[in-house]
Amino acid sequence: MFIFRKDFNNVGDWWSPPFKYFKFNSSDNYDLMDSNLSKIKSNVIILGGGGLGKDFFYQYIHNIKKIFSRSKIITWGVGFTLYENKKTLLDPDKIQHKKIHENIFEGFDLIGCRDFGLNFKNYTWLPCASCMHNDFEKFHSKTPTKKIGIYHHYNVPLKNDLVKNEDIMDNSGTDINIKLKFLSNYECIITNAYHGVYWSQLLNRKTICVPFKSSVLNFKYKPHFTLQNISDKDFEETKNYPNYLEECRNINKKFYQDVLNVF
User: With 50 as the cut, is the pLDDT of residue 142 above it?
Assistant: First the structure.
C-alpha cells in the first residue's frame, strides 16, 4: 500500500510516488491526511515521496507509525523542510542540512530520503522517483530555444525584468508534461520550487535558485543560489549536469530491487 500527499495543486508531489513507475503487487494508494487510514490493512507500507519531513506533517507520520506498528514501512524519496518563510528569503550559508537534528522517519524498516548527505543511520540517499517519468527522455535531448525561464511555487511568485509573461510558469496542477516542456525550452531556469530545481537539473538545464525554504539546500549537486536580483555573474556561475538523470534513475532502480528482495 502506498501513502503520499495527494495534492492536486502540486505537480511535484503528485508525480513523486514510486507506484507510478515501478511494478508492484498492488498500487492501492491513499492520502497522507486521510482520516480513514486506520481502517486499512497492509503488511507493507511505502510512504512518499514529497517533502513529508516538516512540522506540519509530523502528526500524520506519528499516526502512521501507530496505525501500522505491525507492518513493514518504507520511505521512498521523502525530504525534509525545517525552515520555510514565504515572505523572507533564506541565506544558504546560514542554514545547512546538518541542522536537521531529528529524523521523523527513524524506526522505519527502510529509509530512502531525497536529501543528500544527512548524518542519519540506516539512511539511503534516494532522489525523487519522478525522475523515472518517460517524458524526461523526450525533453532531455531537446535543444533550448530561449535563454531564461522562471518556474516558481504557486504560493511564492517570482518576477524578473529579464523575462516576459510567457516565460513564467508555476508548479500548480498535475500535468507534468507541460511543466517539463516549459523547463526544456530554456538554457537556464530561475526557480524557488524544489521540483523546479530537481527537474531542471534532470533535464540538463542550468539552474538558479532563490530559496524560501530549506528543502532546496540539500541537493547532491547544488544549484546556484542567489538572494538578490539576477545578474550576469549569476548566469556565469551556474552549472549543468548531463548525467544526473541517469544517476537518479539508476539509484531508484536499485532501491526498487532492494525493496523486492527484502520485502
Answer: yes
pLDDT in tens, 26-57: 999 999 999 999 999 999 999 999 999 999 99
Q: What is the tens place of the pLDDT at every residue in 244-257? A: 999 999 999 999 99
Same domain for 203 and 233: yes
In a shared domain, residues 179 and 128: no
Q: Same structural domain for residues 128 and 8?
A: yes
In this structure, the answer to whether residues 87 and 149 fall within a common structural domain is no
- The whole domain housing 207 covers 135-242
Q: pLDDT by residue (tens digit) across 50-100?
A: 999 999 999 999 999 999 999 999 999 999 988 888 777 777 776 654 456
Tally the domains of the chain.
2
- SS3 of the chain: CEEECCCCCCHHHHCCCHHHCCCCCCCCEEECCCCCHHHCCCCEEEECCEEEECHHHHHHHHHHHHHCCCCEEEEEEEEECCCECCCCCCCCCCCCHHHCCCCCCCCCCEEEECCCCCCCCCCEECCCHHHHCCHHHHHHCCCCCEEEEEEEECCECCCCCCCCHHHEEECCCCCHHHHHHHHHCEEEEEECCHHHHHHHHHCCCEEEECCCEHHHHCCCCCCEECCCCCCHHHHHCCCCCCCHHHHHHHHHHHHHHHHHHHC
